[in-house]
Amino acid sequence: MSSIEEARYVLINAKSGTALDLSGEDNRSIIGYPRHGEENQQWETIRTDAGWHIRNVAHDTYLAVDGVARDDARVIAREEPFIWHLWDDEENPAAIRICVPDTQHNIDLTNYGDSEPGTPVAIWGRWNAVNQTWFFERGMSSLLR
User: Fold this and answer.
1) Can you tell me the distance from the alpha carbon of 24 to that of 12, in angstroms, rounded to the nearest whole number?
2) pLDDT(62) > 70
3) Alpha-carbon gap, residue 37 to 51, rounded angstroms
4) Is the pTM of this model over 0.70?
5) Running DSSP on this structure, what letter comes out for residue 66?
6) DSSP code of residue 79
7) What count of other Cβ atoms lies within 10 Å of the Cβ of residue 55?
8) Is 41 helix (H, G, I), strand (E, B) or coil?
9) What is the pLDDT of residue 114?
10) Do residues 86 and 93 touch, judged by C-beta distance below 8 A?
11) pLDDT of res. 144
């Protein structure tokens, strides 16, 4: 269980400091990118009975796994909602793990949390890795409500 509420956030990777970004190149790929706070980096959390939907503010698309949950499956934006579980990290309770239900897979900034702009975001099996944890930041920009 996490301390997250239904709200608008910018999701920051705990290792790289880059934001979870809906790529402007295709409006589908999810990448790590330097934080700028525009709407393609803003995500709304929506609580459901089964978990959470995470919706992009710019395009009203949802964070999802491309295909089935397996190591290195890319995280994408799609029109249909996808269920996630949000858990406080055991090592750093201020950080959140974004998990695929009923699996050991977490959202992971690939290449061990590479801060290079455009680094792909995928899911990987859970391990003690800071690049699998995220800070949910509110009020970072005047664009945030």
Assistant:
1) 18
2) yes
3) 25
4) yes
5) S
6) S
7) 19
8) helix
9) 98
10) no
11) 41
- CB-based contacts of 77: which residues, under 8 Å, 6+ apart? 22, 27, 28, 29, 30, 56, 59, 61, 62, 63, 64
Q: How many CB atoms lie within 10 A of CB 128?
A: 9
For residue 116, the one-letter residue type is E
For tokens 């709304």, name the residue: 44
The tokens for 70 are 């397996």
Q: Give me the chain's average pLDDT, please.
A: 94
- Return the structure tokens found at 132: 């699998």
Using alpha carbons only, give the angle 142, 85, 127 rounded to the nearest 5 degrees: 100
For the chain, list the strands marked E by DSSP: 8-13, 19-22, 30-33, 42-47, 52-56, 62-65, 73-78, 85-88, 96-99, 105-109, 119-125, 134-137
Alpha-carbon 39 to chain mean position:
14
- What the block records as the tokens of 76 is 């994408």
Element (H or E) spanning 42, and its range? strand 42-47
Residue count (the chain): 145
Q: What would the pLDDT profile of 72-110 be if each residue is shown by its tens digit?
A: 999 999 999 999 999 999 999 999 999 999 999 999 999
Residue among 6, 7, 37 nearest 21 (CA): 37
